[in-house]
Amino acid sequence: MSNPAGTRFDESLASVARELHVGEVALTAVAAALLLYLWLERRGRPNWHGVALLSSANAGHPYRSRTFAVAPAGKAPRLVRGAALASLVFGLLFVPLVALAVVRYPFDGISIPLLPGMALALLNWASAWLLLARARLAGSAARSGAVGSLIANVGLLAIAGVHFVEVEMQRRDGIEHACSSSVTFVVMVFAVASVAQALVVLAALRAHGGALLFTPPPSPLRPSA
After folding, report:
1. Within a 13 Å sphere around the CA of 140, how many CA atoms are in the beta-carbon half?
2. Cα separation, 36 vs 170, whole angstroms
3. How many CB atoms lie within 10 A of CB 102?
4. Which of 83, 76, 81 has the alpha carbon at shortest distance from 202?
5. pLDDT tens string 8-54
6. Spatial separation of the C-alpha atoms in residues 53 and 69, rounded to whole Å
7. How far apart are CA 114 and CA 98, in angstroms?
8. CA 20 to 30 Å from 106, out of 65, 120, 178, 213?
């Protein structure tokens, strides 16, 4: 006996990459994110020059001496740079993919949470600029985006999992419904990637959040003519 539900689900998953042009979007997003990262990182170096970074070895023990080090070559710490790059790749990759999924697939209950997810992805993408520039609002913006992503996407992943088990796996006998297994797949991948990106940002803020409390040095005054 054939299994039309399984057949439809397999075909749906196999069509995601083709219908959303995942390969082309991924290559373009990664290349654009790397170029943008290199440009932003170089522009932000002056604001990181001479910044004292607290060593994580003794940061949790108030009665021990703390070790400070100057940011090497005026660069942002490695973890901050990694978080910024992850945010850039995430935003440039998933915003167009989610937009394509919302336009192409049925807009039902499981796809509605993708819209605020896109807004959070844009906020995290913008936070990458602020982190590399050591801007005044970098810490608060990055933390808001990361915490918002965790709250929204942990719940979204749970909803998608329940939907997958209770709806997608129960389709039998040719019965159709408005929900698309392709949308469910996109939602689950988006939620997992968003949680991972948020955890990287929070790790960077935990390790080097103090360095982001410094304000950028003022520009030297021009001598009067």
Report:
1. 5
2. 45
3. 17
4. 83
5. 554 555 566 677 787 888 899 999 999 999 999 999 998 888 776 65
6. 5
7. 7
8. 120
